[in-house]
Amino acid sequence: MLSLIDVERFLANVTLSELQSLDVDSFPMLMAACLKFLAMFASHMPKPFTIQLFPELVCFLGAESNVVHSYAALCIEKLLLVKEEGGNCRYVAGDISPFLVQLMTYLFAALKSPESEENHYLMRCMMVVLGVAEISGEVSRPCIKGLADISVKFAEILETPFLTTTSLSLWLYLFDVDANAMFLSYLHLKQVFYRAST
């Protein structure tokens, strides 16, 4: 007879110890499997548990393995998209603000990794993070610089004679990310000017 697995207990007892390892580059396939498990069951994880795990997830974006940083991006995206029963987002800007600068820095750095220049998981994660985050002056500078860098890189990709649907869909993600970043920067500047004028 089959019995159901208690996902939360399995994550706490088995997966968590692996995800909290100090070296994000050790045992990449095991790390990727743990991240995939967390992404698959993102909606079943209690908020306090995942909030405690977010800093580790951000560190996995810095992994050398494309598979590991892709699953880390997928995991962060899935967690940030979880809705509560009333339709409200489970995670809000305040939940990710303590490590937002590091999160965006790792995302931009991962996009420069070999074979990750056209990584959908990283771009979608960036799009979702910017949709949830409140961009302050501290975060807007690295975001604008990072967006400028990847825009140049994507422009080079578009100049190649062999355009793929991957290249074109990355541009769609980039436009969405740029729009979010510009809107959030606008709101931040508006607050700064309002405070300065009063």
UniProtKB/TrEMBL annotation:
<dbReference type="GO" id="GO:0006606">
    <property type="term" value="P:protein import into nucleus"/>
</dbReference>
<feature type="domain" description="Exportin-2 central">
    <location>
        <begin position="3"/>
        <end position="76"/>
    </location>
</feature>
<dbReference type="GO" id="GO:0006611">
    <property type="term" value="P:protein export from nucleus"/>
</dbReference>
<dbReference type="Pfam" id="PF08506">
    <property type="entry name" value="Cse1"/>
</dbReference>
<feature type="domain" description="Exportin-2 C-terminal">
    <location>
        <begin position="77"/>
        <end position="151"/>
    </location>
</feature>
<dbReference type="InterPro" id="IPR016024">
    <property type="entry name" value="ARM-type_fold"/>
</dbReference>
<dbReference type="GO" id="GO:0031267">
    <property type="term" value="F:small GTPase binding"/>
</dbReference>
<protein>
    <submittedName>
        <fullName>Uncharacterized protein</fullName>
    </submittedName>
</protein>
<dbReference type="GO" id="GO:0005635">
    <property type="term" value="C:nuclear envelope"/>
</dbReference>
<dbReference type="InterPro" id="IPR011989">
    <property type="entry name" value="ARM-like"/>
</dbReference>
<dbReference type="GO" id="GO:0005049">
    <property type="term" value="F:nuclear export signal receptor activity"/>
</dbReference>
<dbReference type="Pfam" id="PF03378">
    <property type="entry name" value="CAS_CSE1"/>
</dbReference>
<dbReference type="InterPro" id="IPR013713">
    <property type="entry name" value="XPO2_central"/>
</dbReference>
<dbReference type="GO" id="GO:0005829">
    <property type="term" value="C:cytosol"/>
</dbReference>
<dbReference type="InterPro" id="IPR005043">
    <property type="entry name" value="XPO2_C"/>
</dbReference>
